[in-house]
Amino acid sequence: CSRPQKVCLCPFLPVHPLKVSTCLYIIQHPAEESRVLRTVPLLAACLPSDKCKILVGRRFNEDRYPELATVCRNPNTLILYPGAEATNLEEVAVMSSSPSVMIIIDGTWSQAKDIFYKNSLFRLPKQVQLKPNISSQYVIRTQPTNTCLSTLECAAVALSIMEKNKSIQETILHPLQALCSFQLQHGAQIHHSKEHLLKNGLYDKPMPKNKRKLRRMELLVNNVKI
């Protein structure tokens, strides 16, 4: 896990990499590399190296990333990005019988949006999303809404659906649960979502002056999907 011995998470990782047929391409915003409490390294430690490929950057074109371009044009490739055009992943998994490739963008919501809309390659695969019926266990980092998940959690849920194996989700979430437990034991505080803080009058930061950001906060308070 590459963490100090005192907070080593290796005992919580699977003894052997999980056997999966789905290949993940994690498109990671450069800012995520410098975060101490990031989840992608834990995800990668749970999977075979050829089933979890991490590409770091903001812009991805066919000339610099020919392999990624080929993947994006593959009819079996999916991209996990919520929106009006996205299909429920469970519906896609029912109809899919061949091994798939899934692209997941790793970054804050604004970073992920920037990567998705400014790279035409990522609008070639079929767009899918998860049902927002579970809450994040990544309680040491603030999420926009109660149903926003970390990259590791998204991958865990998605793989369990694609592989039709619920135990995959439990195995991948195990090191995340241990990470949060370690941090809370060493002084970290539980972070409620921005949605929770706003609805309960607990948001203690200045409200944004930017009208677009202010509107987004109003939508969170009114439980409108954004």
UniProtKB/TrEMBL annotation:
Q: What class of enzyme is it?
A: transferase
Query: Pfam families, from UniProt?
Result: DTW (PF03942)
Which keywords fit this entry according to its UniProt record?
A: S-adenosyl-L-methionine, Transferase, tRNA processing
Query: Which segments constitute the DTW domain?
Result: 1-188
Which superkingdom is the protein from? Eukaryota
UniProt cross-references to InterPro entries, sorted A to Z: DTW, DTWD2/TAPT
Gene Ontology BP terms: tRNA processing
Which molecular function GO terms apply here? Answer: tRNA-uridine aminocarboxypropyltransferase activity
Which reaction(s) are listed as its catalytic activity? a uridine in tRNA + S-adenosyl-L-methionine = a 3-[(3S)-3-amino-3-carboxypropyl]uridine in tRNA + S-methyl-5'-thioadenosine + H(+)
**Catalytic activity, EC:** 2.5.1.25
Q: What protein family is recorded?
A: Belongs to the TDD superfamily. DTWD2 family.
Q: What is the name of this protein?
A: tRNA-uridine aminocarboxypropyltransferase
Annotated source species: Sitta europaea (Eurasian nuthatch)
